[in-house]
Amino acid sequence: MDPILGEFEQLVLIAVVRLGEDAYGATIRREIEERTARRLAISAVYTTLDRLEAKGCVRSWIGEPTATRGGRRRKHFALQPLGARALRTAYRAFTGMTAGLEQRLKRL
Amino acid sequence: MPSALERLAVSLISFSSPVRDREWIIGDIEEEFARVAGIQGLAGARRWVWGEAFRVVLSSLRSLAVRLAERSQGDGLMQTLLQDLRYAIRLLLRSPAFAATAILILALSIGANAAIFSAVKGMLIAPLPYPAPERLVRIFEENPTTPHFPMAPADFRDYRLELRTFESIAAYLRNDLQLVEGDRPEQLRGMQVTAGFFRTVGIAPALGREFEPAEEIAANGDVVVLSHGLWMRRFQGDPAVIGRPVRLSGRVFRVVGVLPAGFQHVGGTYRTYGHGEVVDIWSVMPVPMGEEPQHRFSHYFNVVGRLRPGVSWTVMAEDLKETGKRVAQKYPEPPSPWVSRAAPLKDEIVGTAPSTLTALSWTARAVLLLACLNVAGLLLGRASRRTREIGVRAALGATRGRLALQLLIESLVLACAGGTAGVSIAYAAIAALARYGPADTPRLQAITVDSGVLLYTAAATMLSALLFGLIPAWQLARAGLGTALKEGGRTVAGLAHQRLRHVLAGAQVALAFVLVVAGGLLLRSFISVLHADAGFSPEGALTASLELPTARYDTPAKAADFFTRALERIRALPGVQSAAIGSDLPWTGYDENTGFSIAGRQFADGEEPEGRYHFVTAGYASATGIPVLAGREISESDTADAPMTVLLNGGAARKYWGSPEAAVGARIKIWGRERTVAGVIGDLRDLPWDAHVTPAVYFPVPQTWYSQRMFLVARTATAPDATVDSIRRVIADLDPELPLANVKQLEAVASAAFATRRLTLSLVTAFGVIALFLAVVGIYGLMAQTVGQRVQEFGVRQALGATRWDIVRLVLSQSVVLTVAGLGAGLVLSVLSTRLLTSLLYGVGRADPLTFGAVTALLLGTSAVASYLPARRATHVSPATALRSSN
Question: What ipTM was predicted for this assembly?
Fold first, then answer.
């Protein structure tokens, strides 16, 4: 049974899809903030990513330390097949529910 | 992160983030900070990072609350605790006045302790900002009469070659230079150092190199190393600055290196900038190669050394002794009296701070203890009023232990709120210290609220919670719960509470006594010091420093000529009453000494006359306000051709001639020339509270002088500041490349000597005031409650014929007992604890009867008033009303 994604989990996964190889905490957060006009705490992003990884929806790997980050390493994330399926399910559910209601929803 | 403020935000974020993700979270924050700074500038980035900290903390608190809410359903211990926590928070929110009072009291006390701990940590515990700082050592020379002296140049040279236990040693001395670029000359703060100084300290230049041994020969020494700050400020951070010529003090130097940002000079007390003070420019200290006598007799090399790894102190001391013996053999007759001694660098930097900090630490702890007792009293008072609630809960099955736990958790919540607020108070206090505190506070830059301080604050918070929480909780656990259900105030539990509150109030009186006595003793000391005869007149005089560059003023005659012409014009300015130039200002730590001999007298070995020497122009005594005790002061007639004269101070005259009058006309020999004592002027102490006076000798500048920084003193009839510009113009007219630097009122110079004492006094007095306030309010609260519970009794008494005054007397007698008991305990504690203050006292004994008497009267008076007010209120209720009231 594919995992059911919460609302924020969906946003994070979509950001991972969009960013591709460039997906790590800072970029994912920036992407969501810019596209949804929400202010997020960076810790909330990582908590969600950890949860998604525990569910098997993403995998992570540690990158090299860089000078701009004060010599700290970066944790990258990539979509897993399970996550892809869960996201597709969520997308289909959303589009299924909103089919034909786009105009009405925009004017709400 | 650019500043401490941002680092605090990042610490908050780090602390509130899950441990496993901290590394990448902080990395992301740094990355994002740089990105936002690039778009919105530093201010925008600062706003962003603090917004981020706020969001992260809020997010972590929210998830914590969710987890707690989930977990608090159920019956286990965890659930119990969490339920109690929620209940405690709700209860406190329902009595906001009580909660606010308790939290404020705790915040002030915990905050004060945290602030003082930051100072202790930064000054005494934190390591110095150099690699392996425990291996850095200062080397002095000393003889039987003179401890702690700088080294002589030839001694330094030989020690440098012969010492075996040191990686390297280096010497340093203050040497300001004037940068002339553009229209206005700038006086740069400079140090001269020998080759290898930076390597010894452990810091490599960021650009270029440091000085090489070949450059220690005066002819090759035209090289400088820039500080990072100077490089950015005057050289635009240009990496091509290496090799560039720069004109300083009339000579051309070449830049060979630039230091990294944040480098701090090691400091010291003799002719050097202090540790942490800005040094703009570094030049080479010439090390003389020959064997002239003055290379052994003239001591002016400050020496710092780095021990080899693994060398113990005793091995090093042995090495110093052996090397000293070899060096002594090279002295010309008489044989050298000097031995060398080492001291850890940190000790010298920290100075007398430990004793002051110890006194302050104990004062702050006493205030915290008092605050805890006060809050315990408040909680007991509250517990008395909650007897019915407690009785109901007991009837519903709560055990004694369970109820006590509930009270403890309430205390914990109060303490945590107080501790958190206390951290902000500590932070503000440290910022205030940095901004308004004494300029010579050692290691100010190391005093911050960091994780160590936060840990200490957390521990203090927990301890306080236990201290004031255990008392009511224990009281509750002991009392019979059945009695709690009874109505009326005079239950067994109520009486026990009363007795305990009396004890607590008495203890608070004792602590307040100790603290107010400490404040009183320091206040009297400070007033004594202020009123002690300074020896000069600080008011209404202006000072400034002048450093004549040796390139253009290479003979004493040229310098004397410049001073004479400058003073002529300055004295002619409107508003200037008198003006003179001297080698130093009072109370600034000037410490140049020389020996001399007195014609016709012999002295035993080790007792030859010696004293401080100063160079002054005519009229120095009148300009500075030093009285002439006998003879005359230096005048216009003491020119280079006139007979050689000197002045003595009263201390020298009395020590060697018995009285100032007897010394006038005496002939003494200094530096190979015979001189007549023309007069004796008043004494100046090194520091305002020094007990003894050092003998001193004053040379007239035209007759004897060597190139050094000099100070102008101009006494003005009008406000001193108005004359500054005119004086600057006079100097600029005579020499456009000569800056007038460090313009200060003489009063400010004098006042700066008191700065640390003033701060200590202010802090202890503030603590004393807080302590007095808490103790008196504690008594008031207790008496109010006592009276409230005895309203019926008073009604009966009054109905039976007692007067108002009888009732008041009844109440007062109760409080007098507790006050007197508290005073007694306080007296004993005071006598024991004022020992901590002895180094800070002046002109007053540590068991001073006047202070003790005054504080006793103060406490008796205030507690009498605090008890009288509730008593008076009680007697204004009519007996009938009182009898009808139920408690």
Answer: 0.90
